[in-house]
């Protein structure tokens, strides 16, 4: 029986999670028709035909339901703590308690049916099991355990509009919950991102500049907050020059791969503004206060190699092989045990999560003042009237 002999190579499913899943399953089954023995046999055979590995958590759930359905409650001796695989299976089965055999049968049938239908609905879409609709200037795809969020406004150097800030938040929220193991942000075209779209400042609401500053503050707090709280490994694939907020956010990524064509530029002073994206905290921590000041106060532009030497970038690749090398590497990493990766990421970030949220708030308060200033208004107007390019 396939469901019994599966190897569970790695997992971190707690009995509590298993039980809560099963409570849901029990609830489902109370309202559903009871599955016959024949339905159950069909489901067991259907499992053998699945092309996609459903993942260890799902295999454990199926294993437990199969055992419960065929043998009843678990009465085997508990395996030793070092026998991880047998213990995971035992935990999962034991967590079903006295769930009746027929309910377990029903739950097994429903679970297999949901796996088969999600597999058949993703067939016939090669390469793009993948593309998620609904974003105007983002392309979001999910493949090989990697969710890729690509900024897609190449003619405007991927400058971030108000709508894009909101869409990135939605895409990150979805990526945080989907079954991918790694999330990647990248840009389409020759730029990674030219930062905040300066036209955002021309969209003045009826309440005037005050209301605009308040709206911007809410939007920005939420946007940066999503990066602070993102639960999985977050990778930036910096395919070209990066400006402004797209650079400052890099301090909140776990890994930053850059093309050797990329540059890193935070011209806040030139724009009459001040740092955001928690860079006033992360940059001095990453590169030391003296180097951070040169970037954040004087707007010094770094090459990819300089950014790597200062710890902002993990590794630099030749532009000609950038895509191939980065994706090959990420595909290999995406096969690592996902829960272990999440746990490690969270341990690294949790230490300073509160500090990051506090920094985000402080930076936004300072920016609200800057946005109302003459220095900022003139700089934005100069760019928009094409008098100045950075
Ligand atoms: C409710 C509203 C919410 C508002 C947002 C709230 C929060 C904001 C908080 C963050 C604040 C600031 C952080 C920053 O990101 S500061 C940095 C801002 N970025 C810039 O100042 C870059 C400006 N762009 C340039 O200097 C140059 O375009 C370039 C990037 C150096 C590229 O030069 P290029 O010669 O190679 O190409 P160019 O012809 O200039 O660009 C092609 C077209 O793209 C347009 N474009 C590029 N970048 C931006 C941008 N940031 N904003 C708007 N438009 C941009 C450029 O205008 C060209 O358009 P067109 O072809 O002329 O129509």
Task: Give a brief description.
Helices cover 52% and strands 10% of the residues. It is of the alpha/beta class and 390 residues long. It has two domains: 37-45 and 53-116, Acyl-CoA Binding Protein (Up-down Bundle); 138-387, 2-enoyl-CoA Hydratase, Chain A, domain 1 (Alpha-Beta Complex), CATH 3.90.226.10.
Structure description:
This protein is of the alpha/beta class and 390 residues long. It folds into 2 domains: 37-45 and 53-116, Acyl-CoA Binding Protein, CATH 1.20.80; 138-387, 2-enoyl-CoA Hydratase, Chain A, domain 1. 52% of the residues lie in helices and 10% in strands. The protein contains 16 helices and 9 strands. It has helices at residues 2-5, 15-31, 37-49, 56-71, 84-94, 101-121, 162-177, 208-228, 245-248, 279-287, 289-296, 304-309, 322-333, 338-350, 353-371, 374-384, and strands at 138-143, 146-151, 182-187, 234-238, 242-243, 255-259, 263-265, 302-303, 315-317. The protein has a 6-stranded mixed beta sheet, with helices on both faces. Strands 5-7-8 form a 3-stranded mixed beta sheet. Helix 3 (37-49) runs parallel beside helix 6 (101-121) and helix 4 (56-71) packs across helix 5. The longest helix has 21 residues, at 101-121. It is elongated and about 75 Å long. It starts with a helix and ends in a 6-residue tail after the last helix. The site of ligand LQQ7U7AH has 25 residues, from helix 8. It holds the Pfam family ACBP. Residues 116-136 are annotated as: Disordered. Keywords: Acetylation, Isomerase, Mitochondrion, Peroxisome, Phosphoprotein, Transit peptide.
């Amino acid at each position: 029986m396939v469901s019994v002999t599966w190897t569970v190579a790695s997992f971190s499913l707690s009995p509590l999670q298993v039980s809560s899943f099963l409570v849901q399953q029990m609830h489902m089954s109370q309202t559903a028709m009871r599955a016959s023995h024949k339905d159950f046999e069909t489901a067991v055979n259907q499992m053998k035909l699945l092309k996609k590995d459903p993942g260890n958590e799902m295999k454990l759930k199926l294993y437990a339901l199969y055992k419960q359905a065929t043998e009843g409650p678990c009465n085997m001796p508990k395996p030793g703590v070092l026998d991880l695989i047998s213990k995971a299976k035992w935990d999962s089965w034991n967590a079903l308690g006295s769930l009746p055999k027929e309910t377990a049968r029903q739950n097994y049938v429903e679970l297999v049916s949901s796996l088969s239908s999600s597999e058949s609905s993703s067939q016939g879409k090669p390469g793009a099991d993948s593309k998620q609709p609904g974003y105007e200037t983002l392309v979001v795809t999910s493949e090989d355990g990697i969710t890729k969020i690509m900024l897609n406004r190449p003619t405007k150097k991927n400058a971030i509009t108000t709508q894009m800030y909101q869409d990135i938040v939605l895409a990150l929220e979805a990526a945080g919950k989907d079954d991918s193991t790694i999330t990647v942000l990248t840009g389409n075209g020759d730029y990674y991102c030219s930062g905040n779209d300066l036209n955002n400042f021309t969209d003045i609401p009826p309440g005037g500049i005050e209301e605009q500053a308040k709206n911007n503050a809410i939007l920005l707090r939420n946007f940066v907050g999503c990066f602070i709280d993102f639960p999985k490994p977050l990778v930036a694939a910096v395919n070209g020059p990066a400006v402004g907020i797209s650079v400052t956010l890099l301090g909140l990524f776990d890994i930053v791969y850059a093309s050797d064509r990329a540059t890193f530029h935070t011209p806040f002073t030139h724009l009459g503004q001040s740092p955001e994206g928690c860079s006033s905290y992360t940059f001095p921590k990453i590169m030391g206060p003296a180097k951070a000041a040169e970037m954040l106060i004087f707007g010094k532009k770094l090459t990819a190699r300089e950014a790597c030497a200062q710890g902002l970038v993990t590794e630099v690749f030749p532009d000609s092989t950038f895509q191939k090398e980065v994706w090959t590497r990420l595909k290999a990493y995406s096969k690592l045990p996902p829960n272990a990766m999440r746990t490690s990421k969270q341990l690294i970030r949790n230490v300073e999560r509160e500090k990051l949220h506090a920094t985000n708030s402080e930076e936004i308060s300072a920016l609200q003042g800057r946005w109302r200033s003459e220095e900022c208004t003139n700089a934005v107007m100069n760019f928009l009237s094409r008098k100045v390019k950075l």
